[in-house]
Design a protein that fits this description.
about 55% helix; globular; Double Stranded RNA Binding Domain; Ribonuclease iii, N-terminal Endonuclease Domain, Chain A; 2 domains; about 230 residues
């Protein structure tokens, strides 16, 4: 289990002090840690996902007043995704505090995007249950939205979606992942370099002032290569 010192350390990183620290512990508890007991973070992940979608929907609704419903949904889907949430989780060092079974821990579970993103959503739920909507919304604005390039709405079918559809058609369901391979510049004006990777093959590479836009550029580069084949 986590020590009191670790709980305090994580709360400082999250910028939120829990009245009921057991909620935070539950949010960090992967199913491999308590197999078959129902005491893991999966129910909290479900709730956190709903709170996150509401906050992102609100942001898009007010930021793009002329955008139609279908396009709003596409933009939200590009934001509330595993890659963005795992990056947010890494930003607060969440992997260090996860409660994992020995096997999952030994196999690199603390770095797995799926585990990190699920735990991050569970942490959102923990904050919501402990303090209500306002602190949960503040947390999302602080740790999720800065990772996103919301200055320009996603196109009718963004490059990542088009790339995944192409790969799905050619490989019967394999998933493209996006890997950060470099960043440079001062904190207020960083340039990120991302690669679109299928298994161990680099499909494309791109740069941007957010990880999201760099990922889109990498997908666009991959599409330019693959669609000519």
């Amino acid at each position: 289990m986590l020590t009191k010192e670790q709980i305090t350390e994580l709360q400082n990183k999250l910028g939120y002090s829990f009245g009921n620290a057991d909620l935070l512990k539950r949010a960090l508890m992967h199913s491999s840690y308590v197999p078959g007991t129902g005491g893991d973070n999966e129910r909290m992940e479900f709730l956190g996902d709903a709170v996150l979608e509401l906050c992102v929907s609100e942001e898009l609704f007010f930021r793009f007043p002329n955008m139609q419903e279908g396009q709003l949904s596409k933009n939200r889907a590009s934001i509330v995704c595993e890659s963005a949430l795992s990056e947010a989780a890494k930003g607060v060092g969440l992997g260090k505090y996860l409660l994992l079974g020995r096997g999952e821990d030994a196999s690199g579970g603390r770095e797995k995007p799926s585990i990190l993103s699920d735990a991050f959503e569970a942490v959102i739920a923990a904050i919501y249950l402990d303090g209500g909507f306002a602190p949960a919304r503040s947390f999302i604005h602080r740790f999720v939205l800065p990772l996103l390039d919301l200055s320009t709405p996603v196109s009718e079918k963004d490059h990542k979606t088009r790339l995944q559809e192409l790969i799905h058609a050619r490989t019967h369901g394999r998933q493209v992942r996006y890997v950060l391979v470099g960043e440079e510049g001062p904190d207020h004006s960083k340039t990120f370099t991302m690669q679109a990777v299928l298994d161990e093959q680099v499909l494309g590479e791109g740069k941007g002032h957010s990880k999201q836009s760099a990922g889109q550029a990498a997908a666009e580069d991959a599409l330019s290569r693959l669609e000519t084949k």
